Amino acid sequence: MTSLALTRESIARVRPGPAVAAVLIALFLLLFLVVPVVQVIFVAFQDKTTGAFTLINFADFFRNDLFMRSFWNSFYVSAMSVVVASALALPLAYLTTRFEFRGAVLIQSLGIIPLIMPPFIGAVAMQLLFGRNGTVNLLLRDHFGISIPFMEGLNGVIFVQSIHYFPFILINLSASLKNIDRAMEESAQNLGCHGFRLFRRIVFPLAMPGYVAGASLVFIKVFDDLGTPLLLNVNDMLAPQAYLRISSIGIADPMGYVISVVLIVCSLLALWVSALAMKGKDYATVQRGGGGLARRRMKPLELVAAYAVVLLILVLVLAPHIGLTLLSFATIWSFSPFPDAFTMKHYGTVFLESGQYITNTLLYASLAALLDVVIGTAIAYLVLRSKLPGRQWLDYIAMAALAVPGVVLGIGYLRSFYDVPMPFTGQPLSGFWLILVFALAIRRLPYALRACTAALQQVSNSLEEAAENLGATKLRTISRVVVPLMSGGILAGFVTSFATAAVELSATIMLVHSQSDAPLAYGLYVYMQSAAGRGPGAALGVFAVVIVGLGTYLSHVIIERGRRERGQDH
Amino acid sequence: MSRTLHGVAAALAVMLASSTAAFAQDPSGKLVVVTSFPKDLTSAFQQAFQKAYPKVTLEVLNRNTNAGVKYLQETASNNGTDLFWASAPDAFEVLKGANLLQAYKPKVEGIPEKVGAYPINDPEGMYAGFAASGYGIMWNSRYMKANELPAPKEWSDLAKPVYYDHVAISAPSRSGTTHLTIETILQGEGWEKGWRTNKEIAGNYRTITERSFGVPDGVNSGSFGIGIVIDFFALSSQASGFPVEFVYPTVTTIVPANIGIVKNAPNKAAAETFVDFILSPQGQEVLLQPAIRRLPVNPATYAKAPADYPNPFKDTSLGSQVNFDVEVSQARYNVVDALFDQLITFQLDGLKAATRAIHQADAALAKKPNDKGKALLAEARDLVAAMPVTAQEAADPQLAGAFTVERKSATDAVPERQAQVEQKWAAFAKDNYAAARKKAEEALALAR
């Protein structure tokens, strides 16, 4: 774990490559993130009557009880969500990477599914299961005369958000755990360290980059998320306040944009704090054992306990999707523990009407995710390995995208690209479907970026230096040594970006210019506007989940196989 | 594009428009409609229209009303939309104010001037009503049975203690039609009394949803029992098989849902044909389909409706109780929304706590009367009902100025900033609700 300061200097000799890459990425971020957003949020700094620059709107923000209450609620909910999400993710990650565990890949894949909570319908399913008159509480009331307020107020938000976003921790932590050098653990064991102490003192600290990456994502995402609180009708939180302000007719006051600015600043602060926590530590390991940590075989009793824990967590985190599946087969489900009867007809409806949505979604989400991991890897490399001045800013700006409300980005894109005609056709550029892909890529870039950064933090410099000493060019070193070593993290980034882009709604809804270009989230939105659309909406949601889930499983299988093959070469 | 080219293009457009007008019987091309209506409604009209005019390709873009308005505003410079098709008349007012609509007088005969007390068409012809809807009360019968609740009939029923924590509504600032319901109560009962009623009902709210469909959705699932909704949400839920029922209270407004041609519509001829089509007997009949269930504006269509179908042109009690004054409503539009949000939506916990205490004290005093307790209770009720602004102040352009979009000229007096005004109102409500709760608790103590 010794940091080789001297050789790091030698890498930093100025080469044109990194600089060119940095400029290209900066241009991309400028064009598709900074310019559109600034086009919208400059209102926050404008005096409404004179149009002059002012900070009075920010003073109003801090003087307003509602906004301050919203601010603290958001903070509380985000912090609690990190705690609950960690409690869900730690056992799953630890058990599946540390022990010989049948079905580890399946569990890892299932663990990602909560991220794919289709808009609207996810909240309906949760209410039907855990709401005041949901399955659980109706059964409890009938049999025991009690009810549990899972979904009341802020509790509901914490509950749903932890389930929804805990995969960020699971994915990043698992990737980190797998990358730990087996020698570290063995040395500790040789020195007499075992059991929980081994985990607490050696394994977990070494996996810290992954955990911090995941936890900071959960925090920021919950802080900035507006969908869940809005659908649970909790509006005294910051992101819903911004959204309500921005999207209400007739009220075009600056406060919505002021809140957006506050959100962006808070997200960057959270990021900065998490970077501080990691500062001055070196997590890189030189040796790559086959499959990372040694997997221990469990005693039968331990095995039963482990399976019970895993099963319990899986049932809890997959509850929305179980509800969704029930809903997609239900005729009528109203104030009863289970649907009145079951039918296949919703799937028939969706099959006839929505094929286009599904192909569009696959195309957009995979292109966006691909773009994300390419840019994410590049930024991670530039930040961690180059000495370019201001390279941190690429990271900060890209992460700021997390805090930009989708509506703001959508309106910004319309403002920036609507008047630009497309070559040849003369159609507005904002109507071109690739613009939608860029919007999705920008929105999901932070996920990929954090995953890639965590992965690169665990790759030792000396491996690159070794390759270069043996005569490999920089590009070859990156493509043959660095990227393969980061593959777990890159995959994690791809999967999170892809899965979440597939169900993104808020920017999409502003940018869809024709039905034939519309993605699945738009189709869901259309269905969920009417009583008759609930069943088909749920069926479409199930399609989304299955497709993304299968994609995730396949990529895990491929990566695991590659890893095993490489492992055998050692 | 240079100025002269613009001129040429404009001249060409005029020529093109006049030539297409001459052959208006046979429109063709792509027709882009931005709408907030559910798929059930749009696809039914789409099918009927394309059958009648096979040469027109109808492209339907779904946006919620607010996003639709924003979309049209942002894309106006290079407009690609022909029609805007949505419920809330106020959304059309916003578009009209921004000069984004184009006048058109439908050719269809036999459409009356008013439905209930509300004018069907915009006086300047910028948009036309094509279906009427009224607000009412919807409930889930399974929920009501399990909680042993009686069926409500009037708005004032919803203020009864028995419905505490069972009612839901969408915020008027989020839903143009809810806004009209609140405004109807205000105009029907007067400013002070109307707000009192609104707040007494609000004390029984379980939740205030962010989108209009959230209310029928919650009633359908049984997350809450009673919802204040627009009729077609309830009627179409019923038609989909949900165990829900619906009633129109006496004081309700029947409002038209509208369609308007967007300024510089790329396919104006087809747009006009579409407007005429949905107003024609053929188009109006589509509204009677079970999954749509809206009230046609063409009185002749009711002959084909099922027996118990509400008919605002025959049933005079429907929507005619209140003579709805559009100008009064317009003048205080944003102020009413902001008042509701600041006094009710964002202070719901405080309001509910006060209401709970009042209900308890009231029940106790009924059993064991006590004059001092009664007086305290009346004070508590007045505290809840108190308003930070009078009807005159609410209509004052100075106050409304704090909420408007347009930048005033430099000579205008600078109004207070919206955030300042809101903070003042919120503080007022918070203190009053806390004081009311205290008074009610004192009254309860006296009745023990």
Q: What can you see in these coordinates?
A:
Chain A: Its main location: membrane. Chain A: Belongs to the binding-protein-dependent transport system permease family. The complex is a heterodimer of chains A (570) and B (448). With 570 residues, chain A is mainly α. Chain A has one domain (5-38, 61-338, 347-569): MetI-like (MetI-like fold, Orthogonal Bundle), CATH 1.10.3720.10. Chain A has 25 helices and no strands. Chain A has helices at residues 5-11, 16-41, 56-63, 65-98, 104-110, 121-130, 135-144, 153-179, 182-190, 195-206, 208-224, 227-231, 238-247, 255-278, 300-329, 345-353, 355-385, 391-400, 406-417, 433-457, 461-469, 474-501, 506-511, 520-527, 534-569. In chain A, helix 17 crosses helix 20 (433-457). Chain B has 448 residues and is α/β, with parallel strands linked by helices. Chain B has 2 domains: 3-133 and 255-304, Periplasmic binding protein-like II (D-Maltodextrin-Binding Protein, domain 2, 3-Layer(aba) Sandwich), CATH 3.40.190; 134-253 and 326-446, D-Maltodextrin-Binding Protein, domain 2 (3-Layer(aba) Sandwich), CATH 3.40.190.10. Helix content of chain B is 47%, strand content 15%. Chain B is built from 18 helices and 13 strands. Chain B has helices at residues 3-22, 39-52, 65-75, 89-97, 141-146, 176-189, 191-202, 214-221, 231-239, 268-279, 281-286, 326-331, 333-343, 348-367, 371-385, 391-395, 397-400, 418-446; strands spanning 29-35, 56-62, 83-86, 101-102, 114-115, 118-119, 128-140, 167-170, 205-209, 226-230, 244-247, 254-262, 295-296. In chain B, the strands form 2 sheets. In chain B, strands 1, 2, 3, 4, 7, 8, 9, 10, 11, 12 and 13 form an 11-stranded mixed β-sheet that branches. A two-stranded antiparallel sheet of chain B has the order 5-6. In chain B, helix 2 (39-52) links the parallel strand 1 (29-35) and strand 2. In chain B, helix 3 runs parallel beside helix 4 and helix 6 packs across helix 7. Chain B is globular and about 80 Å long. The N and C termini of chain B lie far apart (82 Å).
